[in-house]
Amino acid sequence: MTIYKEPWRWVHQAVCSLARQSYKNFEVIIIVDNPGYPSIAELQSLLKHLKLTAVIRVNDDNLGLVASLNSALNLVSGQYIARFDSDDECLPDRFDKELRFLRDNNYDFVSSSINLMSENGDIIKSLAFKGSLSTKQVKWIEPRSNPFWHPTWLMRKKVMDELKGYRSLYSVEDFDFVLRALDAKFELGILGEALVNKRIVESSISETGGYRQAVYAHFLINKYRSGELNLQVKLPKINPESEREYLSTLARKKKLERASALKKIGFSISLLSTSSGRLILANIIHQRFSIPAVKILKCLIF
């Protein structure tokens, strides 16, 4: 788990959710990627109070998420690695159910479904699957839609060792890791039950960041399908004109959110005329009907 600038109340809730786990045989490794973080003493005191076995490392400088995660991996001594975010909450039986799911099915790397949680801690929506997904199903769905939520990950340590940790690919390092695990023929599975409450923070990804993330993910999918994912990967440059077009179209969408049904239909039709519009329309349909966005895009391109 890494901490950067998360509010102390969120970190407190995250750590307390670890202490409530029904499975007790684990060690917490926390990297504080902010030497000026104001609640380090409170964190140490809380871990002691909860009697959690823990290792805390405070970076001398802000190294970034990927470097911090990779440094945490060097401190792992157990057979399994679980990923968690410092602003989320685990349900009490998360570790127990994920570990049994992994062992019973002989998987190398698993995740669970999630509940979306507001900044205030209210559950907004459950994104649970009706059933669990096998390796074959994950291989089909992952390049089309990414349901492998990183705060729910549990894997055998050999997966992280063989893949040599995370690569420094801004905003898509998790997606890259999952695709590389599939490419390396590891067995992956998704437990249908929601075992983590993931906090949705409005400021975490800007509209510009969301566009770039979508472009980078599409780039990685093409590399995966062409068998070039494990080569030296350099993310593509963002076309400023396409980015402006995307943001302009997104602004129009927000304006028309309360418009009449007829205007909404007209706007939806207009989205088909540009690549950025088709990207937005694909994401809308994906969110509404759970159809993979990449599959939708293929239907929208003509």
UniProtKB/TrEMBL annotation:
SUPFAM superfamilies referenced in this protein's UniProt entry, alphabetically: Nucleotide-diphospho-sugar transferases
Domain Glycosyltransferase 2-like: 1-162
Keyword Transmembrane helix listed: no
Glycosyltransferase among keywords: yes
One function term, GO molecular function aspect: glycosyltransferase activity
Domain of life of the source: Bacteria
Pfam families for the chain: Glycos_transf_2
Keyword terms: Glycosyltransferase, Transferase
Gene3D superfamilies the UniProt entry points to: Spore Coat Polysaccharide Biosynthesis Protein SpsA, Chain A
Family label: Belongs to the glycosyltransferase 2 family.
Protein name: Glycosyltransferase
Gene: glycosyltransferase
